[in-house]
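Figure 3 (text version): structure tokens given as input.
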């Protein structure tokens, strides 16, 4: 039986899918290992609730598994998977108000690897996680989702265009405009003050 390690590249996705469709269903766990963390980070920044984000990611994998026979291998598997995730987020987001909870932000930040486990470093990471989530929520959904796909999902612009069903130039424009807005917000005096206070701790 062929086995796959978490170190395999994204290019192996279709190979894993073929094994799953052939009846080796436990190989689907390889896809879960590859994409669970970036999917969770995107879902959290969009929904603002770590518990709900975990549920959405679980439902995303379940939906992908059930619909795997409909996947067209001519296209990127991860593009297909991210499309499912965004649809799940929209479905859940429509049921509740989007709001961040400090405890959830801290939980997600603590999951991020850090080479410096000092308390001050961890505090800074938690603050950055909260700040990023809040900034993304200030953006229009199309810009925020484009940034999430680009930086959490690692998708190329062509893949972002496919997920968001827009042109390549639109995908690039959404990322660029979103980054410009966030840069402007970060340059505001209040943002600089908060950052300075963190650095002094």
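Below: residues designed for each position.
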């Amino acid at each position: 039986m062929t086995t796959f390690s978490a170190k395999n590249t994204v290019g192996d996705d279709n190979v894993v899918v073929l094994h799953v469709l052939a009846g080796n269903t436990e190989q689907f766990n390889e896809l879960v290992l590859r994409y669970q963390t970036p999917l969770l980070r995107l879902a959290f920044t969009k929904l603002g609730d770590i518990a709900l984000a975990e549920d959405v990611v679980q439902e995303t994998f379940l939906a992908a598994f059930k619909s795997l026979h409909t996947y067209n291998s001519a296209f990127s598997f991860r593009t297909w998977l991210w499309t499912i995730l965004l649809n799940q987020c929209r479905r859940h987001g429509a049921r509740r108000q989007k709001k961040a909870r400090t405890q959830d932000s801290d939980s997600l930040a603590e999951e991020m690897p850090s080479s410096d486990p000092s308390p001050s470093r961890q505090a800074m990471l938690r603050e950055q996680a909260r700040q990023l989530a809040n900034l993304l929520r200030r953006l229009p959904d199309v810009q925020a989702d484009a940034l999430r796909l680009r930086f959490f999902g690692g998708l190329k612009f062509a893949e972002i265009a496919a997920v968001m069903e827009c042109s390549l130039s639109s995908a690039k424009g959404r990322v660029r405009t979103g980054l410009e807005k966030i840069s402007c917000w970060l340059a505001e005096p209040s943002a600089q003050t908060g950052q300075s206070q963190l650095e002094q701790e």
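The chain is about 70% helix and 0% strand.
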